[in-house]
Write a structure and sequence with these properties.
Blueprint (H helix, E strand, L loop, with lengths): L5 E7 L3 E8 L4 E8 L11 E2 L1 H19 L6 E8 L5 E4 L9 E2 L7 H9 L3 H8 L8 H12 L2 H5 L3 E4 L1 H9 L6 E3 H4 L5 E2 L4 E2 L1 H7 L8 E3 L2 E6 L2 H4 L4 E7 H8 L8 E5 L3 E8 L10 E8 L2 E10 L3 H9 L9 H7 L8 E3 L17 E3 L7 H27 L6 E4 L6 H11 L3 E4 L4 H13 L6 H5 L4 E5 L5 H23 L2
Parallel strand pairs: 1-5, 5-14, 9-12, 15-21, 21-22
Antiparallel strand pairs: 1-2, 2-3, 4-7, 6-8, 10-11, 13-14, 15-16, 16-18, 17-18, 19-20, 22-23
Helix pairs in contact: 10-15, 11-13, 12-13, 13-14
The chain binds adenosine-5'-diphosphate.
Length: about 500
Amino acid sequence: MMNKRYLVALDQGTTSSRAVVFTLEGHMVASAAQEFPQHYPQPGWVEHDPADILSTQIESLRAAVRKADINPAEIAAIGITNQRETTFIWDRETGVCLHNAIVWQCRRTAPIVDDLIAKGFGPMIREKTGLVADAYFSGTKLKWLLDEMNVRHRAKKGEICFGTVDSFLAWHLVEGHPHVTDATNAGRTMLFNLHTQEWDDELLRMLDIPKEMLPQVIDTAQVIGDLREDLLGVKIPVAALVGDQHAALFGQACFRQGDVKNTYGTGCFMLMNAGEEFRLSKSGLLTTMAWRLNGKPTYAFEGSVFMGGATIQWLRDEMHMISTAAESEAVAASVGDTGGVYLVPAFTGLGAPYWNMYTRGTLVGMTRGTGRAHIVRAALESIAYQSRDLFASMARDCGIDSMALRVDGGASANQLLMQFQADLLNVPVQRPAVLETTALGAALLAGLAVGIYSDLQETASGWHVADTFAPHMDETTRQEKIHGWRRAVDAALHWAEER
Ligand code: ADP
């Protein structure tokens, strides 16, 4: 390990493939990204061309190493992190995919899910997988592919492989074509039993999926094999597979029960380390893997805000109230508060803890004096209110009051939003120096697998807080604001009820 100085993360996302080179201390050296086309064959359907995924991932790896200007022989290990749930099937003999990948956002299997729910499978799915039966997860996508391509008989003979993005990349990038997935990715298929840590026969029967086509489930940090030598000219161990949100939780060093991170992107993803015991949330949060290390699972609660940064995009693109997302901060800061205005951006319904798909966007509390700045501020604050709802639910379900919120993602650049978030939660909001927490998490996990770090504590030494936003809102104001938000959500829910 003497001459090993770098770790590399491959971050295969929904709109682009990226690669990031880090030092062993977790500092970013260089990164490269390549976008690829999205395919929408029908309304509500979303696909990726597997060849695009592979070529953009390989190109970005080479570009990042070139930019870093390092000798590839100095790379200690590579970790792969990925968009979750997106579903591939390929021929075991040739490696050729039988169909485009069906992307997590794709709604084509909603009728299959409706049917499962009508047949009463919902509670069993929830109890075994920690998920809520939904088309989002891979299981029904795989069933659809088997039905549509009429290849179940071949799958039974082991001639066809299923995989999520991590499996697909491992198969194509690692010598010897391993057919593997890690527990965080397996946990998003609706086929994996979080208690036994194995594929579940009852779930497989429910969707008529042959076990012979499933990848072997491995630990999140585990050496899989060497990177294909033709890619960088040397052998480098590929040593971690991890879903993107789980990688971010790890990259934020959320190693203790109750540690929580929120990623403010298009949507917001909040995950809390829920410890080593499987528990179901009472607020409709998902239970998912945090990671599995040395065969030992750590669980997490997960909740998402559908309209996070997307609310700011809406202000920009539909309302024309701002010209850039960053401008939202100055406009919002031009007024001291929203003047009693609340925006509930339930454009596509509300998730946990409300779970109402019929709610729609609602703007309440306007007066003759309400102006653009108040509405922009209300939009920014709505991201913080929705995140607070998740945070409070997690604290309740976990029985632990978190002492801080760790943040990342594009909209975490907004100081006003971060300060308001801290004020609402009444705990400090911590923004780390490396905001590429997803890539960092995958790199650190790979480092752990090859022995660069001896334990989690050592791994965490790469995580540094750059900015802390301390709460300084008084309790009365905080409670008033939260009460106002609840009333606004009630108004939105009530409007949906009268439908
Ligand atoms: P994703 O990974 O989902 O594409 P990013 O992490 O790149 O998202 O964040 C982009 C989102 O953050 C966009 O929705 C954008 O509107 C929002 N955003 C970016 N910068 C700011 C800012 N300074 N203030 C508020 N929102 C922002």
